[in-house]
Write a structure and sequence with these properties.
By secondary structure, this protein is mostly helical. The protein is built from eleven helices and two strands. The longest helix is centred in the C-terminal third of the chain and has 21 residues. About 30% of the residues are buried.
Length: about 210
């Protein structure tokens, strides 16, 4: 991923590069932020995807929707990956897994150098409060950009329903990880994004 290499990708090509185990993985927008110019790359990719295509990619599969949660709660991004202060080796392995499968013509030595650079950036971000705050801000901006592009739920109910189920599961579900903070985040999201609020209300009406 470089600014130049991603400048002219089609929607299908973007999704192909963001697949993980054959499903679209929105959490990779978070991983991108550790690349040189990673924030610009992530913004460029999102801007090149239409709202309908983005919604279908994120909401079309339950696992893809779950992956959205990694970036939806930026204060806990690292908490979903690790249990304590990460080592460079742990982060290297995380990056390797996220990048599989590799292109057949990729040079292993070059790949390992890139993995180490990203892993070190992740460790540095985790252990430095200022860098962490900057990362959270960029991740929040990425989420805002995604949700601002998603179309109303009238003709896309199935996709929106997957998104709503994932968010509710994280914030107020049976296996609640976020407690009151998660509920506050949900209220904040609904207040910021009218399409999400409408989808939540539509889902509640269908259940009643």
């Amino acid at each position: 991923f470089t600014v130049e290499n991603t400048a002219h990708l089609t929607e299908d090509e973007i999704v192909q590069r963001l697949l993980f185990r054959d499903r679209f993985d929105p959490s990779k927008f978070g991983l991108m932020l550790f690349l040189p110019n990673g924030y610009s790359i992530a913004v460029q990719l999102i801007n090149r995807m239409s709202g309908n295509f983005l919604l279908k990619s994120i909401g079309g599969d339950a696992m893809s929707t779950d992956d959205l949660m990694y970036i939806l709660f930026p204060e806990d991004y690292f908490g979903k990956i690790i249990d304590e202060t990460p080592t460079i080796e742990e982060m290297q392995e995380h990056v390797r897994v996220e990048c599989m499968p590799l292109p057949p013509d990729f040079q292993k030595g070059d790949f390992e150098k890139r993995v180490t650079a990203i892993a070190q950036a992740m460790v540095d971000t985790y252990t430095d409060e200022a860098r962490r705050d900057k990362f959270k801000g960029q991740l929040q901006n990425i989420v805002d950009l995604i949700f601002n592009k998603l179309p109303p739920n009238t003709e896309n109910r199935v996709y929106w329903n997957n998104i709503c189920v994932a968010i509710i599961g994280e914030t107020v579900g049976e296996h609640d990880e976020y407690g009151e903070d998660g509920k506050k985040r949900l209220v904040e999201l609904e207040g910021k994004f009218s399409t999400l609020k409408a989808a939540m209300e539509d889902r509640a009406a269908m259940k009643s």
